[in-house]
Amino acid sequence: MQRQTLIFNLDDTLVHCNKYFRDTINHFVAQLQEWFENLTKEEIKKKQLEIDLKSIETYGLHSSRFPESLVATYLFFSEQTNQDIREDRVEKVKKIGQSVFEVPVEPLPDMYEVLDNLKEQGHNLYLHTGGDEENQSRKIVQLELAKYFEKRVFISEHKNTPALKEILNQINYDPKKTWMIGNSLKTDIRPAVEVGIHAIHVPSELEWSYNQVEIDIKPKGNLITVNSLMEVPEIIQKHAQKTVLST
Q1: How many Cα neighbours within 13 Å face the side chain of 220?
Q2: Which of 83, 107, 136, 171 is the most buried (most CB within 10 A)?
Q3: What mean pLDDT is predicted for residues 218-236?
């Protein structure tokens, strides 16, 4: 069996993430409806998402972006309804946004079993996660992921094809034996297809609209969608054995 290079995404591939943002946004919406009685949940969510997605162009996936998007949403509706902007409300909204980064991290089912299996198979495990150093490192420490990835961890505020290319250049990869494994079509799968490595898409039950894009490029390697993370070790093992037989 030929050893493979496996690059994992973190949020919503190995650990829960989007559900915490959903809960926090619901908390924010409920608060704004107390202050602006005529606003619907849909109006608030739509405006917050619009502001949040636009800010990614400037701030990337840094954690400071999310609380600021909530504040900007509050400011927008204050101006729209001719209400005075209150600093105590601004601070309250910021705290709601920051609370999502204080929640203890929860691994997805079978995460440890999958990583143990792949490690025992002898593959090289890497982690490429989007966000900022402080927040993502917090998750890695809490879940003790260093025993799988050691120092092979890359954190990108702008997680895209150039970021993946830079990582691949650092690790001296073979595209025929390198895989990207993640839930995001935008930041995991499309970049992998664009650089010509294999990709395994593990869809999340709750997906952020930012992550949803069309893959309209013909892949050079394998492009596989699975129902569960548990399917990954067998796919990798079969490919590794097949590679040996074909050499």
Answers
A1: 13
A2: 136
A3: 95
